[in-house]
Design a protein that fits this description.
It is built from six helices and no strands. With 106 residues, it is mainly α. The chain has two domains: 71 residues, Arc Repressor Mutant, subunit A, CATH 1.10.10.10; 34 residues. Helix 1 crosses helix 4, helix 2 crosses helix 4 and helix 5 runs antiparallel to helix 6.
């Protein structure tokens, strides 16, 4: 997995499992991935060591992977999306209407 794929992977897992993380884990993750701050910038902003930020992010990655392994929310989401796409390929107005209703539920 290259750097961009890895980044995208963790962002998608974060979207699924954000509510299961601590506030500190959420903040560090958001700073690093969404605000594009470096480890040093996050550490400086919070008055901690760069290594502490790194350790916290590493722990967050591990938790996200564990949550996905146990709950499979993202995997299930991907499977549903694939089914939706297949259903939309069917040239039937009723099927397409129901598929669109299913998408809106998420």
């Amino acid at each position: 997995m290259d750097i961009l794929e890895k980044k995208q992977h963790y962002i998608l897992l974060f979207d699924c499992y954000e509510s299961l993380l601590t506030e500190k884990q959420k903040e560090y993750f958001k700073d690093y991935y969404f605000s594009d701050l470096s480890l040093a910038e996050i550490a400086n902003e919070r008055g901690i060591s760069r290594n502490a930020v790194f350790d916290q992010l590493k722990k967050t990655y591990t938790l996200l992977e564990e949550y996905e392994k146990k709950l499979s929310l993202y995997k299930k989401y991907e499977l549903r999306q694939a089914i939706y796409e297949k259903l939309l390929e069917i040239d039937d107005e009723k099927v397409n209407e129901l598929t669109e209703k299913l998408k809106k539920i998420e």
